[in-house]
Amino acid sequence: MAIRHWRVKDRYYRLIGSRCTECGAECFPPVYRCRKCGSEKIEDREMPQSGKIVTYTQLHEPLPGFEAQAPFYLAVVELDNGAKMLTQLVDSTDESVKTGAKVVATVRRARVDGDSGQITYGYKFRVT
Amino acid sequence: MYLMQSKERAAIQGYGAYVPYYRLPTTEIAKVWKGGGSGPNVEKAVAAMDEDTVTMAIEAGRYAMKMAGTERLGAVFVGTESKPYAVKPTSTIVAQALGQHHTLAADLEFACKAGTEAMQIVTGLVGSGMIEAGLAIGMDTAQGRPGDDLEYTAASGGAAYVIGRKDKKSAAVIDCSTSFVSDTGDFWRRAHERYPRHLSRFTGEPAYFHHIENSVNTLFKETGHKPSDFKYAVFHQPNPRFPVEVATRLGFTMEQIKTGLLNPLIGNTYAGSSPIGLAAVLDEASPGDKILLASFGSGAGSDAFCIEVLDGIAATRGVNPTVKSMMERSTRIDYSTYSKFRDKLHK
Fold it and tell me: Exposed (0-12), middle (13-18) or buried (19+): which is B158, by Cβ within 10 Å?
């Protein structure tokens, strides 16, 4: 497993993002400086587990490690607090994936390391 | 006395089930391997290729914690025989995803009864006052050798229970339980083997029936309860026939077992089998209803529970998707897709 992933696994497991204590803006992934007001007074905040699809595409030629899952949907999802993220969609039919569709977060296998066999888990979303 | 009963009563504060989205009709298996596919087991739940016991346990655990309204767990136990790692706990990954660190975490293995074992242990920890609340999960991505009888039923899914001290918010009290075990070689999987093996004629009388009848009859004898005292009964369901047969032998009716009998539509979810049957019953039970829960694990053993639904059940309605709704939200796949999802095909 990439050490980088291990250090930030709460981000991938629990959608831990940031909240600005000055203006209240929330964002994901976490930031050191508020994107809205520039304040450095930032705290960890668990993001809402639901949102809606802003835009999406279907991927037929994914990055190495994800070939077996192709084709799959990638979407920009806006969470209920306004934070946006790029994410994979699972368990969703062609008919259900559309702009504005409601989605909820889930934890799935992201990839398995080819040499060590270690499993990396992370968030994905499914249409409700 | 063989009855296990905590001095301070432990109760189910929240529960959550998980049934994956995909279904494999048994007719698909019969097309490839000839035979079967026309019996009462219609289809089985299949985990997607990016799902495993960890991901499904997290889903069910989140539902259970949400219903219980708790953010602190003194224990996280995952009962399963399909751990993603042979060495590295499933429970620590689940605990991390649920935000739990100061907790006792462990994986339990006892074939199909590891989930109810987890419930008994958490009940003991709560009942003794060692912890306020703990999470017991029974979850599996069960595998059957291609073409084997088991492939028609071996399925994915399960349920999680937050068990805490009985109070006004409790959904159901775990009144007492019994266990019965023996060294019986009905079903096993040696280290490094991919699929389990079974001795067909051993799986019935000396294994499933002998152990469940012993655990349940001991419960009856020591509590004075009789089948008619229970509104519902849930038995481990390796196939559609065994739970009906054992229920009849013990004096229960179809009316009492039909709500928790899910095998025909989702298959045998192994350690998740009886726990998810209980979840389906809790989805519709009313305060005062008594539930008999009896698991079976090969190797072999059975745990029997007497559970009584409390007034707090009313507040659980609508918090999480019901088992029925999870079963309905599904799509059918063919044997080829199933083979890819469950790692039976390699490039």
Answer: buried
